[in-house]
Amino acid sequence: RAKAFGKSQLALYSDALQEEANQRLNLENALSEALAQRQFELFYQPIVQVSAGRSQVVGVEALLRWWQGTRLVSPDEFIPVLEESGEIVEVGEWVLQQACTQVRQWHQQGLAGLRCSVNLSSRQLQEQGFANRVAQILRETGLPPSSLVLEITESLLMRDVPDTLAALRELESMGIRIALDDFGTGFSSLGYLHRYPLHIIKVDKSFITKAPDDERLKAISRAIIGLGRGLDMDVIAEGIETPEQMDFLHNEGCNFVQGYWFSRPQSALDIYPILEQLSNQVRAPEVGSLEAA
Ligand code: C2E
Ligand code: MG
Ligand code: MG
Ligand code: MG
Known about the structure:
Strand content: 15-25%
Number of helices: 13
Radius of gyration: 21 Å
Shape: globular
Largest sheet: 8 strands, mixed, barrel
Bound molecules: ligand C2E, magnesium ion
Distance between the termini: 80 Å
Number of strands: 10
Order of helices and strands: HEEEHHEHHEHHEHEHHEHEEHH
Helix content: 40-55%
Strand order of the largest sheet: 1-2-4-5-6-7-8-9
Structural class: alpha/beta
């Protein structure tokens, strides 16, 4: 009897595995059509500079979304699949092209100097001629290199491919800035911070979420902020959801923040009025000035 029970468990287990494999295959197939079917869309989240009680939007991070029918699929579900298949190279190029075009358009609509942050996968950086391709996209879209920020993660640096350093240096020499995303969550080595040309540290939201109540997390955030400032890097705190977190970060001297407190990531159309609202230096474009631009 025990044996029979064991067998049926095994059968269930292998059914579950089969089911999982099928789902994965369906996902891969659906994804390989997604670009051609125009199912990808970029959402944007403001990056805000806070100083002396004034907040000012300084940039946006482009975040990829996939419309599977009416379901909006989160990048954590599909980026790893695209990375594995290698399709991230093509999709990532689309993201870059799309984000640069959009932000350039916002510059022309009055949000001059707005920075455009784009997430990179390691596969993209390892592509031959990646920096040239970026330069070409900047030329084609008219976005100044100084307005582009490329976000990479520690895991990308961990691979320590010699070409990675060369590619990053090339990008830096073009005037592009490099941000180290999700700092503190990977297998961080402080050696990265001086070995690679990095201009921005993004404190991972896992440190921020509980920061005001948790002394240990607070200490970690404080240390990362100090590290960044000591190295003359900009520090952006991710995942700000409450005014208490804002106060804490401001007191610690972290002047750049991003999070639901200001805005959730939204479509280009929906984010524009929020960007205008968050940019107190900028006037709305006058009627007719858009055609002239
Ligand atoms: P990330 O680059 O660290 O992006 C920040 C993530 O935090 C975003 O998740 C954003 O929606 C979320 N977030 C922002 N503010 C808050 C907040 O206040 N609270 C909480 N709980 N979350 C907040 P999202 O959009 O789901 O993206 C997840 C990750 O997917 C990104 O993490 C990035 O690593 C990756 N990703 C997104 N777009 C791209 C892309 O175009 N290319 C590549 N290679 N990766 C991308
Ligand atoms: Mg990012
Ligand atoms: Mg992050
Ligand atoms: Mg992340």
